Amino acid sequence: MCAMARRRPNPENAEAVAALSRPAPSALSTRSRPPSGGRRWRWLAAITVGIAGVAGFVACSSLDRTVVAPPHIAGAEYIGDEDCSICHEDITAGFHSASHARLLAQSDNALGSGCEVCHGPGSLHSDAGGGRGNIINPKQDPTICFDCHLDIRGRFLLPSRHPVTDPHRVAQGGMTCTECHSPHKGDAMPGGGGVSALAYNEECLRCHSAQRGPYVFEHEAMREGCNVCHDAHGSVNDKLLVARNASLCLRCHFQQQTGPGVVLIGGQNHADFLGRGTCWTSGCHEAVHGSRVSSSLRY
Asked: Are residues 199 and 244 in the same domain?
């Protein structure tokens, strides 16, 4: 208790004593005291919503300090990026062009804002002249990427997903985030994150070579990018599809209902076909990526 709070008014001053004995007005005074019974819960709910509303203003854009907990290595301290370039000059030379270079900050409290954001504090690694057990390698444990990319972590928990989240599978040659994303040079998004669908597709076709083609009759969706139909990180639908059944195809292929029991797609009535399953399993358009024999995308 501070000295100001320990002071007591002169007992001879009756008015001061009376004032001290009265409760100070506050947000929880008698007039605004929480009601009893069922109304009490509504009052508490209103307070909770108010607190949540204030918390909604806490974001990277509204604070001047770090809001993401940096990686931790027992016994190590943050030392900055200068020591990194001594051994890893081949990486640091092109890092200025990387998307992650935006994490760099120039200030007295900027330690840990560059390489150490992903690799952890580097003092032990630097003092030992390198090594594998004294630094974090996201290529071996991609879960470090999820410290920032929380939405992607959620997608990798969906039923259909690329096998990235399990470090044990990564150690056995499984996938990591760096299979598709470049953390040290250039844009982290495949194809530059823009409209260059062919460049985006190249990342997928390095593994999925059977879908590369060329085809005599290509599916035009391939020109727009694999992500038109697939969510590369995860989906509730089979095969990483962004929609299920015919709903996926109808995102692009216009349907027209001209009368009862008539659904025209591409000028042909598909009313009887839509109930058989997906467009690629009902015996019609199995070669969804392209065909060498049929303009209707059949094998």
From this structure: yes
Contact 116, 124 (CB under 8 A): no
Taking every pair of C-alpha atoms in the chain, what is the biggest distance, in angstroms?
Answer: 107
Contact 229, 278 (CB under 8 A): no
* DSSP category for residue 230: B
Q: Residue 5 corresponds to which amino acid?
A: A
- Could you tell me the two tokens for 157? 């928990």
Answer with the one of 140, 156, 179 that is the final residue of a domain. 179
Rounded to whole angstroms, how far apart are CA atoms 264 and 116?
A: 57
Residue with tokens 């083609």: 213
> CA-to-CA distance for 150 and 195, rounded, in angstroms?
25
Residue 126: give the domain boundaries.
84-179
Q: What is the CA angle 240-246-247, rounded to 5? A: 70
Each residue's pLDDT, cut to its tens digit, for the chain (299 residues) gives: 444 444 444 444 444 434 444 444 444 444 445 455 556 656 565 555 555 554 444 555 565 655 567 788 899 998 888 888 889 998 888 888 888 887 776 666 666 567 888 898 999 999 999 888 899 988 888 888 888 888 888 898 899 988 886 666 665 666 888 888 888 988 888 766 554 556 778 888 888 988 888 899 989 888 888 888 999 899 999 999 999 888 888 888 888 888 888 888 888 888 888 777 788 876 788 899 999 998 888 87
End-of-domain residue from the set 158, 179, 200: 179
CA distances from 170 to 142, 155, 179 (A): 8, 18, 11
Are both 229 and 262 inside the same structural domain?
yes
